[in-house]
Amino acid sequence: MAKAKKKAPAKKKPAAAAKTLEVLLVGSKVKATIKEADCNTGGDAVDGLNNWVHWLIKQATARAQANGRKTVRAHDFMVMG
What is the distance between the alpha carbons of residues 20 and 57, in angstroms, rounded to a whole number? Predict the structure, then answer.
């Protein structure tokens, strides 16, 4: 009778991987729009833009809730300084 193999402990994900946000953008569309402006797209550009979109959504939902609404409207995305 063969002994059962011990399972190796699960590998922990690096801290950076734990903070990865779901991609909300179409990368090819972002790159095409940047190319139309006669610029190149860096390897981290889409990720940086995606992080900014997540931040905008967080700000907009907070503003809607602060105004007693559950519906996020276009003016909730206005950046106020």
Answer: 16
Residue 57, exposed/middle/buried by CB under 10 A (0-12, 13-18, 19+)?
Answer: middle
Please report which confidence band the pLDDT of residue 15 belongs to, taking 50, 70 and 90 as the band edges. Answer: low
Name the token pair of 2.
């063969």
Alpha-carbon gap, residue 12 to 18, rounded angstroms: 10
pTM of the model: 0.72
